[in-house]
Amino acid sequence: MLTAEIHVTLKDLVLDPQGTTLKRSLEALGFTGVAEVRMGKYIQVRFDSDDRKAVERQVDEMCQKILSNPVIEQYRFTIREGQ
Amino acid sequence: MLTAEIHVTLKDLVLDPQGTTLKRSLEALGFTGVAEVRMGKYIQVRFDSDDRKAVERQVDEMCQKILSNPVIEQYRFTIREGQ
User: Fold this and answer.
1) Does the beta-carbon distance from B26 to A1 stay under 8 Å?
2) CATH number where A50 lies
3) How many structural domains comprise chain B?
4) Cα distance from B47 to chain A (closest Cα, Å)?
5) For chain A, which ranges sit under pLDDT 50?
6) pLDDT score, position B54
7) Residues of B whose CB is below 8 A from A38
C-alpha cells in the first residue's frame, strides 16, 4: 500500500481572500505579528498498489485533471509506504 | 521572519464525505486502485517575529482556537525560517 500526500496551494501572485479573512480574524482575537496567511489543501490518497512509478504517474495526472486548477494553483506531492 | 506550516486533518475515526466524493470522481475519471481519499487543510502563517518559542506558542493557540475544530480534527505544524 502506498499513500500520496498532496499539497495544493495558490500561486504566489494570486490573491488569497480566504487567507486575508483568516488573518483579520486572528488579529481580532489578539494575535499580533502575523504578516500573511495563505490557505491551501492537503489531500491524502491511499492506493492498493505497491508500484511507486505507476502511482506517481497517476497522482500527477489527478493533480492536473481534478485536484488543482492549473491556472491559479500549484501542487507538489510525495509518495510514502503504508497508510 | 518565521513561517508556520500547519496541517489540519480529520481524526481517523471521523467520516470524510468530501474525500469520499473525490474518490468517486477519481473512479469516474478512470483512476483505479484508489483505496481512500482524505481531505485536509494546509495553512501557511508568516510572522514578522524571529522568536521561535513565542511563535510556536502562538501557532498552537491559533490551532486550538480558530484553525481546527478539536472535536473532529487534529493538527500538526512545523516552523521554518523565511517566507
Assistant:
1) no
2) 3.30.1280.10
3) 1
4) 5
5) none
6) 96
7) 43-44
Report yes or no: A4 and A78 within 8 Å, Cβ to Cβ.
yes
Q: What is the DSSP secondary-structure string of B4-67?
A: EEEEEEE-TTS--HHHHHHHHHHHHTT---EEEEEEEEEEEEEES---HHHHHHHHHHHIIIII
Q: Could you report the predicted ipTM of this complex, rounded to two decimals? A: 0.93
Alpha-carbon distance A65 to nearest alpha carbon in chain B (angstroms)? 9
pLDDT tens-digit map of B26-83: 999 999 999 999 999 999 999 999 999 999 999 999 999 999 999 999 999 999 998 7
Q: What is the pTM of this model?
A: 0.94
Q: How far is CA B21 from CA A57, B16, B17, B36, B63, in A?
A: 22, 9, 6, 11, 26
Domain that holds residue B17: 2-81
